[in-house]
Specification:
Order of helices and strands: HEHHHEEEHEHEEH
Number of strands: 7
Structural class: alpha+beta
Radius of gyration: 17 Å
Strand content: 25-35%
């Protein structure tokens, strides 16, 4: 099988896969989700935290979101996150390495913040990355000044790796904090397998 054929087969596998946790259900990003993604541009608080322009032209944002679905990139796996069929954001795996990817996540709209959904989404994303994408290492970064985002990575079981590049957050100077977790560390956090009849 050629590398190109293998990549197509892998994309099919990813698109067909779904994961359910106590709170979060993931669905591969598709055109039907474009209006959801575009609607985040109407949330002023979300835009400020993500560095998006506000206000944005709704038609332009919808066209952008549809393009993401119609022309998926080989180096980006995006999963929409739902709770009881209500959209609550998304998670990303970015990169073109076979064994490691960068995790990104967003909970939206901002009215959902502070309910533990970020940590639930990040933990479920790690399960997906190691169990389905078969990664050996997942890394992520958060801006130091965004304390809530830093807490999500720490509570999800990731370990601080190093100081990253300088950044700005809500117009204030800051820098990125980089985190990582390996497959072995993730497996250790799962605990011993349950014994039949226990």
């Amino acid at each position: 099988m050629s590398d190109q054929s293998a990549a197509r087969a892998h994309r099919h596998e990813v698109r067909a896969w779904s994961i359910m946790t106590t709170q979060i259900q993931f669905r591969p990003y598709a055109r039907e989700h474009a209006p959801i993604l575009a609607s985040y541009a109407l949330d002023e608080v979300y835009c400020a935290h993500e560095g998006w322009t506000y206000p944005s032209d709704p038609a332009r944002m919808l066209a952008w979101a549809e393009h993401l679905a119609d022309s998926p990139s080989d180096d980006l796996v995006r999963l929409m996150a739902f709770v009881d069929d209500e959209p609550v954001g998304y998670v990303d795996f970015q990169g073109n390495e076979a064994t490691e990817r960068e995790l990104g996540y967003a909970i939206a709209p901002s009215s959902l913040w502070g309910q533990g959904l970020g940590t639930a989404a990040a933990r479920a994303a790690l399960d997906y990355g190691f169990a389905c994408l078969r990664l050996d290492r997942i890394w992520a970064e958060a801006v130091q000044a965004n304390a809530a985002s830093v807490r999500v990575l720490e509570k999800s079981g990731m370990t601080f790796l190093r100081r990253g590049d300088d950044a700005r957050f809500l117009d204030a100077p800051s820098h990125y904090r980089q985190y990582e977790i390996t497959r072995d560390e993730w497996l250790a956090q799962q605990g011993p397998p349950e014994t039949l009849g226990a």
